Amino acid sequence: MFKGRVVGIPTVALFFFATVIIGQLILSWTRIGRVMVMVGSNVRAATAAGVSAAGAITVAYVIAGACSAMSGVLLAARYGSGDMEIGTGYDYAAIAAVLVGGTSITGGSGSVLRTLVGVTVIAIIEVVLLLRGFSDQLQYLITGLIVLGVIMLHTVGERR
Fold it and tell me: Nearest CA to 118 among 103, 101, 95?
């Protein structure tokens, strides 16, 4: 089922885009989405406004856990087995994609659609570096330099 295609589109891609759409709808159109953004921006202000910060954080972790579980199932289906080493390095790429997508490292701003743009940029960079024959260490270095540049630009932009 997970290895199949629907109208020529891989099932994994459909799961991915469905998750992006649902995530953006939750953040933009639901109370809990707005509360999560508020808590991410300033926990003290959210608590002063009468928002349950612990509840919003719990919901965020539950959503992250569900997405991680779905990713694990899809990766196991892709490779035909489960192994602890399959996801090595994905955490670094995920953080890089979120930051390149424009999410503030201090929290409170960002969107799923902008993260999708960051994922696309990081994926393109990784594929180009792989096709050019760069070693894994050099790929990590270049991705790290890109993330450092994005953080520096973010910091300069916040000062203005």
Answer: 101
CB atoms within 10 A of CB 40: 20
Alpha carbon distance 153, 160 (integer Å):
11
Tally of domains in the chain: 2
Q: Which residues contact 112 (CB under 8 A, 6 or more apart)?
A: 20, 23, 24, 27
Element (H, E) at 5: strand 5-6
pTM here is 0.80
Neighbouring CB atoms inside 10 A of 160's CB total: 4
The residue out of 49, 64, 83 marking a domain boundary is 83
How high is the pLDDT of residue 108? Answer: 67
